[in-house]
Design brief:
about 40% strand, 5-stranded antiparallel sheet, about 10% helix, single chain, binds FE2/S2 (inorganic) cluster
Length: about 160
């Protein structure tokens, strides 16, 4: 991962993240943007930005695998408990089986939006991030709060999985 370029605000909610070629080369960068820690990912020609700590229990999504799953949607798999989160929408996905329907067949289901995602734009070889400030709490917001940063992160991330 790379973090050699400083984040600079270019407007109230838009921030310069880095040079396109550098982010493509790094594939993943974690940036402190405004009051948030955001993971920016380059994957198969597209850029994504998502809160870096998992909505379930704060797992480090920058270490998660990327899988194309659930009807071709690209998911980030949290390294702690393997929750799947769509990169584009921040939707939490799971598989369920209805025991009354034979033969048993797993069905793909959504928990709805659980992880806050942000908008990435590229202009003149520079990459910018616009924070998603949509109202209403999204589960991952808790892991961006000052309370979480002060209690867990300042203890050296001793939090157990
Ligand atoms: Fe991410 Fe549990 S912390 S799945």
């Amino acid at each position: 991962m790379s973090s050699d370029e400083d984040v600079a605000a270019v407007s109230r909610h838009s921030y310069f993240i880095g040079k396109k070629e550098n982010i493509i080369q790094a594939r993943r960068v974690v940036k402190s943007v405004g009051e948030r820690d955001v993971l920016v990912i380059y994957h198969k020609g597209d850029f994504y930005a998502i809160d870096v700590r998992c909505y379930h229990s704060g797992g480090p999504l920058q270490e998660g695998d990327i899988e194309k799953d659930f009807d071709g949607r690209t998911c980030l798999v949290c390294p702690w408990h393997k929750y799947k989160i769509t990169l584009a929408e921040g939707e939490g996905l799971y598989q369920a089986v209805n025991p009354s329907v034979k033969p048993l067949k797993p069905t793909r289901c959504s928990k709805g939006i659980k992880q806050r995602v942000h908008t990435v734009t590229v202009s003149n070889k520079d990459v910018f991030l616009t924070l998603n400030d949509s109202p209403g709490p999204i589960d991952s917001d808790y892991y961006q709060t000052e309370k979480y940063r002060n209690t867990f992160l300042k203890e050296g991330q001793k939090k157990t999985k």
